[in-house]
Structures are given as C-alpha cells and as structure tokens.
Amino acid sequence: MPTALLSVYDKSGIAEFAEALHELGWNIVSSGGTARVVAGAGVPVTDVADLTGVPAILDHRVVTLHPKVHGGLLADPTKPEHQADMAEYGIEPISLVVSNLYPFFSEPGIELIDIGGPAMVRASAKNHAHVAILVDPADYPAVLAEISQHGEVTLATRRRLARDAFAHTAAYDAAIVTWFDATESEPEPLPRTMHVALERAEILRYGENPHQQGARYRFGGATSWWDTMTQHGGKALSYLNLYDTEAAWRLVHRFEDPACVVVKHANPCGVAVGTDPIDPIADAYIKANACDPVSAFGGIVAANRIVTKAMAEPLAGVFTEVVVAPGFEAEALELLLAKKNLRVITADPPNEWAFDLKPLDGGFIIQQPDLVSIDRTDWQVVTELQPTDDQWNDLVFAWQVCAAVTSNAIVYVKDRQAFGIGAGQQNRLDSARIAAERSTGRADRGICASDAFFPFRDGLDAAAAAGIKAVIQPGGSVRDEEVIAAANEHGITMVFTHQRHFRH
User: Fold this and answer.
1) Which domains does the chain have, with CATH numbers?
2) Distance (Å) of CA 184 to CA 103, 112, 211, 369
3) pTM (predicted TM-score)
4) DSSP H stretches of helix in 24-138
5) 265 is catalytic
6) Is residue 126 annotated as part of the catalytic site, yes or no?
7) Which of 228, 265, 300, 316 is the most exposed place for a label (fewest CB within 10 A)?
8) Tens digits of per-residue pLDDT, 245-262?
9) Which of 66, 232, 253, 265 is an active site residue?
C-alpha cells in the first residue's frame, strides 16, 4: 500500500484529497491540524509521531525532521544499499507528499519561518524520480486522475511538480531575505543581494511586437492592482497595453483633485484637473484630450474618479485602447462597452514600487523608485518676480506631470491643464520647441516645467517666446545665473526644486 504524507497550512481541499487517496488504496500519514481535518472527514490517518516514535517537540518546531520521514522521502528503492538501510532502520518509502508552507508572505515573522515544510518539499522534489510533491491545491485533481488511471503519478508530472516545488521554496526564501533586509535597524537603501522570485500571472497575446512572446509576472506571494482589477469589455490586454496603462494609472494617482490622464507610448499626451463643479471628471477628460488629440488617438485614458456619462460620451467618440478608473456609472459603462475593442477596467489604486529594475548584460541595474515630492520646503524662487497663488498651483501640477515624461522633458501648463508636452528628445531646446508647437499659443502666460536644468538660456528663451510667465526646474547648471538673468529679462518667475527627474 503506497504512503502519502500530508502536512499543509492551506487546508483547502485536503480532506477531499485524502478521502480520494484512501479510496484508491493509499495509506495516509499526517500530523497536527492537517491530521485533525483528515480524521474529521472519516479518513483513517497515521500520526507522524506514531511513524517516528517521537512526538512534536519544541513548541511544534520539530515534527517531521526525523530519519523515518526523510529516509522515506529520499530513498531510492532501486538501489540495494538503500534497501539495506531502510530494512535496518525500519524506514518505509513515502510516494507522495502534500505540503505548503506557513504564510510568511502575508504575516512575516520569526515563528512563521517554516523549517520542516521546506525540508520535506526539497527532499521530495530532489527525489522526484520516486516521489510526487504537491505544493498547490490546484494540482490535486490532475494528480488524482493520474493515480486513478495509471496507479501512480507519471514521471512527467512528478518532474513538473518538482520544478514547481523548488520555485515555491525559492520564493519563500526570497521573501524571508527581503524581510530581514527591511527590518534591519538601519536598512540599506539597496540591499547587498537581491532575490527576485516571480510567478507568471498571465500570458499576453504577444510582446512589444507580434514576433515577441510576452507575459505578466508578479512577485511571489504578492497581489497587485492588475490581479484585482475587473475588465468589463474589450479584447485581451497586450504587453503595450499593460505598460502604458501602468504609466497612466500611476500618474493620475499623483493628483488629489479630479484628474484625467491620456498616455501614448508610456508618455502623457494630455493631463488635466477638472474644475467644473457639476461634473469635474468629464471636464478633466475633455481638457486632457484637448492637449494633443492627434496623439490621443489609440491612447490610454486614466481617471481618478468614477467615470460619468458626461465623460463617457466624448470618450466614446475617440479611438482609445484602454480606459481605467475606480468605477463607472451604469450609463457610462453601457456607452463604453458598445465599443467592442475598448478595454474598460475598474481598478484599485497602484502600490508603490520597491525597486526599479532595468536589464543589463549579466544582470540588472537597480535603483530606488523616483518619488516625486511636491513639498515646497526646499524649493527656491530664484528670480525677482514671485509666483502668484494661481501660478503656484500650476507649478506644482506641472512638476508632477513633467516627472512622468521621458527625458528631455518640457511641459507647458495653464490652469492645471497641459497644453504642450515635449518628450524624449536628445536636447532640451527641441523639447521646448515641440511643447510650444503643440500648445499653439494656448499656454500663453502659463507655466513651463523642465525635468532637468536648462544648460543654456536658449530653452528659456523658447519658453518666453511661447508666452510662458513662470518656470519650474531643478537648477544646478553652471549657467544658472545666465538662465536666471534671462528669466528676469523676460519678466518670468522661476522656481528651483533642487531635484531632477530624468526618465529613460
């Protein structure tokens, strides 16, 4: 009679699994809470203590760490020397193990660092030629079907299960190391080692281009807004849909007031705060789309308020790939779902990134995420003119937008509405010219934001030519005095933030 050892924290489906194994002629060994659940289902079960002759000790820290358990897991019954050892020490082979670990991901702490569980999982996975190891309740039906059909779990399935088992313990150990790093008395901003355990959450239609495969992965044990969101309609999301929607959703959450963002190729091409007291989110969308309606074609729309019918009506008339918001009025949802290819998503707010990773030959370059501060404590007005209250509101808004634009970034704003965005240019002057061209005079007497300092006065002269009356930039150029003098010459007020926001 083959033996199965069941020891799980997640007990979903374990009683039914044990009952099915018993009906197939298997002997069940278990302990603790798992044994009680199995026995409660009327399934005969042998306690691990009866197998080893040693009860659970040290406050249940030592239960399965015994030669009769690990000998049964690691034995190769085809080897005579193993057979001899098993006979001498009374070790019976264990053919199947079901084990998942303490929930360290959700409740980290010393007592939830599982020792016996990972040891059993790894031993079983190493000896997968003779032992099947299950760490996921989702595998119970397939394993039972194979035992019913073949009398055992097939080698191909045992190998797949072993691979999943090692991935399970690797993610578990990675979570423990990350917890140690985070709970140091003086944690390092970037730890000495980085342990990234990712699980595939979904396969995408393709990658950035049709010839590339693509998938979304998440950190083991983690849940993101992508996992909890609801897609109401439209085609399956693509790689670029995810990339651009993430950018739009993060940017729109920088604003406390009703706001709307339009993103194309990961860059905002429209951002606005709504000021209409009757329907501010509709007002925000109309203003955001007006920034650059040509680029908005085929873009991503994100709103930080429930989408109203008044917002959905103009949105439905613009070809849009994705619209994401915290919710939708029933009439708005009906209007948008009539566009069969439009992906309509209800989502929770995004989480903060722990690190920013970019691939590099042999590994990654890693940095802290670029947090955008609007704390004006260290900001400095460097010109003769001081900003007005309205200009301060626009300066803060423009700074938040500019930090989300690919460098070199120039943004022209007026009344918390973006009118011109120059992105991704090799020089700042070209970005200023593009922003001016896109704004078509609408930012007259408005605000210019620059993600890095003006290396020459020409960028500021271009802003002045577009009618800009206030500038926000990090400062720090060797020619700052020249640029400040130019601002004073043009009657422009200028603020230095002393923080750069390059984005590549």
Assistant:
1) 3-180 (3.40.50.1380), 233-346 (3.40.140.20), 377-496 (3.40.140.20)
2) 21, 18, 45, 20
3) 0.88
4) 32-40, 48-52, 67-74, 80-89, 116-126
5) yes
6) yes
7) 228
8) 999 999 999 999 999 999
9) 265
